[in-house]
Amino acid sequence: MFNISRNMLRIRPLSGRLIRESNGRKCNSRGTLELSNLLMKNHSGSFGGFSQHTRQFSIKMSEVAVKDFILPNEQPVVPLECGTAFANLSAKEKAYAHHLSKASWFGGLVVLIQTSIEAGSLFSILHQVFEHDTVDDLKNQALEVNGLSEDEFQAILVFTCGVYANMGNYKSFGDSKIIPNLAADKLEKFLFTTKAFQRNTDLVKVWNRVKDLVYDLSPKKCHLGLGDKGTTTYFSSNCTSEDADIISRYFKSIQMEGYNNRVIKTEENGVTKYEIRLASVETGSMDGITREPEPFEGYQFCVTRGDYSPLLKLVVEELQKAKNYASNDVEVAMLTEYIKSFTTGSLNDHKNGSRHWVQNKGPVIETYIGFIETYRDPAGMRGEFEGFVAVVNKVMSAKFGTLVAGAENFLPLLPWPSTLETDKYLKPDFTSLDVLTFSGSGIPAGINIPNYGEIRQDEGFKNVSLGNVIPASYKDPNIFFISEEDKQLLITHNTESFELQVGLHELLGHGSGKLFRQNPDGTYNFDMDSVKASLGDEKLSWYEEGETYDSKFSTISSSYEECRAECVGLYLSLNDDVLKIFGHEGDKAQDIIYVNWLSLLLNGSTRAMEFYNPKTQSWMQAHSQARYVILQVLLEAGQGLVKVAKVIGSDGKDDFLLSLDRTKISTVGKEAIGNFLRKLQIYKSTGNLEAARVMYAKYSEVSSTGPYPFAEWRSLILEKKQPRKIFVQSNTCLEGEAVRLLEYSANVSGMIQSWNERFDTSSVVHQALEELWHKDEPFFS
Predict the structure, then answer these.
(1) In the UniProt entry, which residues are flagged as the active site (predicted)?
(2) Which DSSP category does 142 fall into?
(3) How far is the C-alpha of 142 from the C-alpha of 150, rounded, in Å?
């Protein structure tokens, strides 16, 4: 997946500046920090929403900068425009898109449950508050009845939009927590006087059980993670990385994958028990799906099902309706398999549905749904739910089609032996899509799916570029840390260069390379002698039965693969034939190359710092780590290719400057990326995790010493951080037999209204979330 994070775009904000606290700071017996007066203030006379005159308002927190965990009141909101694309659909296609969108939105609510124990209840509270009152009426109540300032009411709106956009109270890009930018007592006073709370007194109980969690900034609650590194609901709260390793070995022993399950650990009579809970509508045992309790390495395991049941029931109902409007038998078969998977918990059924999806070439309406990307599972195995519905953009798709047609000529140009490439290139579909609906924690710019290794290698995959996401992301860019001349080049060519990088990243990045594996009959999918000869001094190994790339590379799998795909994009963007496909020749082509490399390095040197945690010395985002690694590789190459330095800015203050010598990209740069890319592919193909981890850790290190002390520069860089943009998406609604598109204004009120009108039966949604809270609370709180 290709996430947008270039030049302040699609970046989740973090700040490195710490709060200065006045005297009056106290800790109670539970480690609660009481904040009275905070010296640092914003323009409204408050900081982080905690007024200068707040009376000993307590929140659980560690020595953290509160500003790191709030969204600014100036949060940018942009529309994801798809009106023209939707208008060109037939009535049948609109109906198909409508029901698929409904299924996606219902399924996207699963992400709340996958994010934190409190996220589902928090969403339900906010959704009901804004569903029963208009924003204007609530504003009048807040200012006139509750005594809030306009900034404090704006903070409520922005926080609500943040929860909606990220599908939870943790940022989807960086995994850091989001808390409201006003004091808990003020938020509570506002909530209790709304119509929603007046009409449904049970909401008071819901709020009381989660309010401490909403504001909790204790070390474990600041970020997503496993054990003492953070919080997660992919594993019960008593699990550690050691538990994840045990579970991974169990999965390998029974040849099971983790995409659609969670783990619950309990103790009984001195025996540790692990319940592997599959996502499904149905509950109870089922042959071939569930497993009765069985011993493994001194522990007891069982496989059950029924996770997210009430939400998946809503998904299945809409997928059934969508089948009536499918354009061909392949789409019917695809949806049938998805329905079976979500109903029974069978991952194999979802794989079968994905096989049909791969074979459904060039549909007008493109869609995919399920437990897909593993970025947010601390173990790198469990998929977050997402669903998208989009309309094909024929003009840009034609360019991608030409790239696909030439792929067999471009693959041999990659810097690894031919033995590391698949025996037969399976030409994929590659389309540019205007997104109608994208549910989940965030919207990427490109996707290469399915992620199932055996399907990708033996049957094929699809590449998707989400065309209307890219221009929406590049509206009103703020660019720092490069020269004025470079800024102008980025503004001029950023969109076109990014389309090029997305195409190469998805098609020839994620779509290249072979995994060496041992077959069930003991044979291998590669020729031992020829591979040995091509590897030289590198170790020859392979994936054993039951192992996948994700399961073997686990915690580094996502970032390592994104790094490999990014490197392929950089490497092949130097090719004249590739550039011509996208309409770039002559001086413009050279500018496109320069902007492509410069953009990625700018992200790797500056934006990436927002997603590095200096306290735990860990990375919080796969793409950011990947780009930082590439920067370090090119800095190591030397010869003046890339320069980074602390400088004095035009305002006389310390600043940071990145420069790239465009005359050395095709020589020094290409050689450095080529050598690194060769190693990335060899270690991935051979499953050599040990060598991969050592190499990747070396380039991932953020040092406070040496010629490039990014750990020291980090606070300087973060002074100019920018919030990521929030996308307002359209809705569809039925008016008799016709489907109408509902569009909204590009502001926080429009974002909230879009969610108010997203569900015809919101009470069913709130009931489902409440049911799931009670089911999960004993294990995840």
Answers:
(1) 506
(2) I
(3) 8
Q: What is the DSSP letter of 66?
A: G
Please report, as a single letter, which amino acid is at residue 730.
S
Taking CA atoms, 169 is separated from 15, 75, 166, 179, 595, in Å, by 17, 16, 7, 7, 34
Interior angle at CA 564, CA 560 and CA 566, nearest 5: 115
Q: What are phi and psi of 771, to 5 degrees?
A: -60, -40
| Three state DSSP letters for 493-540 | HHHHHHHHHHHHHHHHHHCCCCCCEECCCCCECCCHHHHHHHHCCCCC
Go through 619-654 and write b for each residue having 16 or more CB atoms within 10 A of its CB, e for each that does not: bbbbbbbbbbbbbbbbbebeeebbebeeeeeeeeee
Domain ranges of the chain: 477-720
Q: Is the peptide bond before 450 cis (omega within 30 degrees of 0)?
A: yes
- Residue 74 designated active-site: no
Residue whose C-alpha is closest to residue 52's, from 35, 32, 34, 74: 35
Per-residue buried b or exposed e for 541-571, using 16+ beta carbons within 10 Å of the residue's own CB: ebbeebbbbbbbbbbbbbbbbbbbbbbbbbb
- 3-class DSSP state of 60: strand
The residue annotated as part of the active site, out of 275, 506, 561, 566, is 506
One-letter amino acid of 378: P
Number of Cβ atoms within 10 Å of the Cβ of 390: 26
Annotate 294-334 with DSSP letters as a single string. EEETTEEEEEEEEETHHHHHHHHHHHHHHHTT-SSHHHHHH
Q: Show the tokens assigned to 781.
A: 């709180």
**Count of CB atoms within 10 A of residue 133's CB?**
17
Q: What is the C-alpha to C-alpha distance for residues 471 and 454, in angstroms, rounded to an integer?
A: 34
According to the annotation, is 562 in a ligand binding site? yes
Give me the amino acid identity at 135. V
**Which pLDDT score is estimated for 13?**
28
* pLDDT for 33 beyond 60: no
Q: Which residues 6+ apart lie within 8 Å of 124 measured at CB?
A: 206, 765, 766, 769, 770
Helix axes 762-780, 119-132, angle to 10 degrees: 160
CB atoms within 10 A of CB 77: 19
Where is average pLDDT lowest: 50-64, 379-393, 450-464, 697-711?
Answer: 50-64
Provide the 10 A C-beta neighbour count for residue 723. 16
Structure tokens, 676: 């690194």
- 584 among annotated binding-site residues: no
Which of 2-16, 253-267, 280-294 is least confident?
Answer: 2-16
Question: pTM of the predicted model, to two decimals?
Answer: 0.78
Supply the pLDDT for residue 462: 87
Residue 15 has pLDDT above 60, yes or no: no
- 395 near 430, Cβ under 8 Å? no
End-to-end CA distance of the chain, in Å? Answer: 31
Question: How many residues comprise the chain?
Answer: 781
Q: What would the pLDDT profile of 345-397 be if each residue is shown by its tens digit?
A: 999 999 999 999 999 988 999 999 999 999 899 999 999 999 999 998 877 78
Instruction: Judge contact between 332 and 363, C-beta under 8 A.
Output: no
**SS3 for 678-743, per residue?**
HHHHHHHHHCCHHHHHHHHHHHHCCCCCCCCCHHHHHHHHHCCCCCCCEEECCEEEEECCEEEEEC
DSSP label at 543?
B
Backbone angles phi, psi at 404, to 5 degrees: -60, -45
DSSP state of 39: S
How far is Cα 687 from Cα 551, in angstroms, rounded to an integer?
A: 11
Specify the long-range contacts of residues 134-138, CB closer than 8 Å, at least 24 apart. Answer: 135/749, 135/752, 135/753, 138/194
Could you say which DSSP state residue 428 is in?
Answer: P
